[in-house]
From TrEMBL:
Family: Belongs to the MetA family.
NCBIfam families assigned: metA (TIGR01001)
Lineage: Bacteria, Pseudomonadati, Pseudomonadota, Gammaproteobacteria, Alteromonadales
Protein's recorded name: Homoserine O-succinyltransferase
Site (Important for acyl-CoA specificity): 111
Length: 312
């Protein structure tokens, strides 16, 4: 079954151009099934690019998925037209009474800002707590993963002097965990962050387990025993050029970034990037939707139980 996205959303044309089947609300209404309800809290400045990346991964499943794009505040983002936000995004207050099978909270370019100094931190914590009551399984990406660890468990990230940037080899630590079903023992995934939490710190938290990690980039996939929290410290959704664009953006800003690891052939930024994470990125999202969302969510979402509060 396809993903249902709002009519005229720019991502629709991109996905159709990639031969990815989407449908609008009118066609979805003719199908006599209970679709999965998915929310995306998009914290990235380039909303449209992130929408395409995430919707592409969510579409790779036989399940029908309804998507609500959610904004955290009304401030106009730097790289997205206000008209786009007004047309396609829901204010959190308008969906606060709704329950979701799944929620994705994206990363954000806030690597050097203390959590309490983030302008929307109060709203962020409200949404984190709300998800415990209204969402069956939440996936936290990159900055959001560290922010959730801090809020729920009091775990503070360590800020590295050199940004972790590149495509790193990872190993599967728990091949029997369903979120890694079908994974090769070693696989690649992109990272782009300053924040870091050691795998041992995650594993010391009751109810959490690191199931995939990299020797260079550290913990990558961390899951809760009840499947209702998934922390992804990298960016499986990234397009081929995303790290390249970030690298040249930092160059132009005079940051003098390191060349992303294992990304350009022969480490030469003049060469086209080597893409080798797409299959496992798709598999990760497909496994999450199937085993952590679809197989565990109640048919009647009103019966969704509140998650037990994490213990610090």
């Amino acid at each position: 079954m396809p993903i249902r996205i709002p009519e005229q959303l720019p991502a629709q044309d991109v996905l159709l151009g990639e031969n990815i089947f989407t449908m609008d609300s009118n066609r979805a209404a003719t199908q006599d099934i209970r679709p999965m309800e998915m929310g995306i809290l998009n914290l990235m400045p380039n909303k449209i690019e992130t929408e395409v990346q995430l919707l592409r991964l969510l579409s790779n499943t036989p399940l029908q998925v309804n998507v609500d794009l959610i904004r955290i505040d009304k401030l106009a983002p730097k790289h997205t037209p206000q008209s786009h936000m007004d047309a396609f995004y829901h204010d959190f207050s308008s969906v606060a009474e709704k329950k979701y099978d799944g929620l994705i909270i994206t990363g954000a370019p806030l690597g050097h800002i203390d959590y309490e100094d983030v302008k929307y931190w109060d709203t962020m914590t409200t949404i984190l707590e709300w998800a415990q009551r209204h969402v069956n399984s939440t996936m936290y990406l990159c900055w959001a993963a560290h922010a959730a660890m801090y809020h729920f468990y009091g775990v503070q990230r360590h800020l590295r002097e050199q940004k972790i940037s590149g495509v790193f080899e990872h190993k599967v630590l728990d091949p029997h965990n369903e979120i890694l079903r079908g994974f090769d023992p070693q696989f690649y995934a992109p990272h782009s962050r300053f924040g870091h939490i050691n795998s041992a710190v995650y594993n010391q938290v009751s109810g959490l387990q690191v199931v995939a990690e990299s020797e260079q980039a550290g913990a990558y996939v961390v899951v809760s025993d009840d499947k209702r929290m998934v922390f992804i410290t990298g960016h499986p959704e990234y397009d081929a050029e995303t790290l390249n664009e970030e690298y040249h953006r930092d160059l132009e800003a005079g940051v003098e970034p390191a060349i992303p690891v294992n990304y350009y052939p022969d480490n030469n930024p003049n060469e086209a990037p080597l893409v080798r994470w797409r299959s496992h990125g798709n598999l990760l999202f497909n496994n999450w939707l199937n085993y952590y969302v679809y197989q565990t969510t109640p048919y009647d979402l009103s019966l969704l139980a509140e998650k037990a509060q994490p213990k610090r």
